[in-house]
Amino acid sequence: MKLTLLGTGTSTGVPSIGCECETCTSDDPRDKRLRVSVLVEHAGQSVLVDTSSDFRQQALRQRIKHLDAVLVTHCHADHIFGLDDIRPLNFRHGALGVYANERAWVDIRRIFKYIFEPSHFGGGLPQVLAHTVEHGAQFCVGPELNVTPVEVIHGRLPVMAYRFNDFAYATDLSEIPPGSLDLLRGLDALVLDCLRIRPHPTHLWLERSLEYVAELRPRRAYFTHIAHDIRHARDSALLPDGVEWAYDGLEIEG
Ligand SMILES: [Zn+2]
Ligand SMILES: [Zn+2]
Q: What is residue 124's predicted lDDT score, i.e. its pLDDT?
């Protein structure tokens, strides 16, 4: 199993437009964060979580040639606005399975109405095979990659985290309900939302993220969806052993 963090930034990306703070002007590549997305590769299968607003740039940088599935955490702009850019993959490999919860599908069908209710001829449209996921209803991509959708709460919105065998990816959340905690135990690696040090109404912040790590006890944890408040080198000292700030291009293998 290999997870590659294609983006680790909050919704604005880092640097943030117009900002001249210490992080936004840093020349440490770990302080340059595209919008969050992760590539999961296992047993010949490649799965992308979220077509971020930076998907095209991420796919080019990662040299993505083929995907077996796209999983959607939720339908906020930073996580879904790259959906149109799956077209070059469709041209070569045909329609692509996209997995999202029912709530996200309502919004995806509204925002990308032209995909689902085409009203014109010509012009390549993304070819999407829509699949609806439900909390705890495991499915497989290929013979060996088990995916378990796990519902977590982003402010008031139920969004999907995903478990892949003994790895899990849980971003954009402020709370993990008790019935979801149990699906996130016994992990080798957990990638978890951690926006910044100060509290936030819809995301985990440092203290809360560390509390969940202490409760779930993954062997390794990586924090993502990071705002410009965090400067990688300076703020790594805030984290205990076994926990790191993720950064774009980080590969987690196991
Ligand atoms: Zn987000
Ligand atoms: Zn800044």
A: 86
Among the bound ligands, the one closest to the CA of 78: 1
Tens digits of residue pLDDT in 42-62: 999 999 999 999 999 999 999
| b/e map 6-15, b = 16+ CB within 10 Å | bbbbbbebbb
- Closest CA relative to residue 167, chosen from 205, 203, 216: 216
* Statement: residue 130 has pLDDT above 90: yes
Instruction: Write out the DSSP string of 11-24.
Output: TT-BSPTT--STTT
- List phi, psi (to 5°) of 32: -105, 110
Q: Which residues contact 143 (CB under 8 A, 6 or more apart)?
A: 43
If you measure from the C-alpha of residue 227 to the centroid of ligand 2, how many angstroms do you get, rounded to a whole number?
8
Task: Name the E strands within 155-232.
Answer: 157-164, 167-170, 189-193, 220-224
- Identify the pLDDT of residue 123: 66
Which pTM was predicted? 0.96
Q: How far is the CA of 126 from the centre of ligand 2 (A)?
A: 34
* Gap between the Cα atoms of 108 and 175, Å rounded: 24
Ligand nearest to the CA of residue 203, numbered in listed order = 1
CA atoms within 13 A on the CB side of 17: 2
